[in-house]
């Protein structure tokens, strides 16, 4: 994100929400700031949800299994 297109702001969040955002950021391999931006954009329809790292691993594992089955292994 270009700095000239960014406004810094302060927001008060309930502790439980902040902790949930931290957990989600860690799970999705994003910084807390990136997670908050992503969640806000997804919440108001500016972006579609991305696959989580766990979902990507499952998709890759399924593709590998399928390709191995095709190869007869």
Q: How would you describe this structure to a colleague?
A:
This protein is mainly alpha-helical and 73 residues long. Helix content is 60%, strand content 0%. It has one domain. The chain is built from three helices and no strands. The protein is elongated, with a radius of gyration of 18 Å. The N and C termini lie far apart (45 Å). The mean pLDDT is 88. Keywords: DNA-binding. It holds the Pfam family Arc. This is Arc family DNA-binding protein.
For the structure shown, list the relevant keywords.
mainly alpha, 3 helices
Short description:
The chain is an all-alpha fold and 73 residues long. It contains three helices and no strands.
